[in-house]
Write a structure and sequence with these properties.
mainly beta, five-stranded mixed beta sheet
């Protein structure tokens, strides 16, 4: 399964979006990460995405079903914690899925932000 992560400039001035978001599954909006964080998918190169107010940049997030792994210890995740590039504040995207508590199983991969 894949989804697009969209970040929109809600400020009054242009901003630069460059690189990969940090993404992990969590048990709730304030919870600790479950399992491995998203691996970087470097299919598309990192580019400068200059966002005027109201413009959006997008990154592709892929999720592999936890049940596909026989050695997965299933844990319920409430959603995704997303850290924009070069930011320490995170966003929470509620979407219940199964996660693997095993950190050696990578269920997630994410691409670099691109113009939407």
């Amino acid at each position: 399964m894949y989804m697009k992560l969209n970040l929109t400039n809600t400020g009054m001035a242009p901003c630069l979006l460059r690189g990969f978001p940090g993404v992990s599954l969590t048990a709730n909006a304030d919870g600790e990460p479950i399992g491995a964080p998203a691996a970087r998918d470097e299919t598309n190169p990192v580019v400068d995405v200059l966002l005027a107010p109201g413009q959006t940049g997008t990154a592709v997030l892929r999720y592999t079903q936890a049940g596909n792994y026989s050695d997965c210890t299933l844990v319920a995740a409430a959603g995704y914690r997303v850290y924009p590039p070069e930011d320490t504040a995170s966003l929470f995207l509620p979407q219940p899925v199964n996660a693997c508590s095993n950190a050696n199983i990578a269920l997630l991969s994410v691409g670099a932000f691109q113009p939407a």
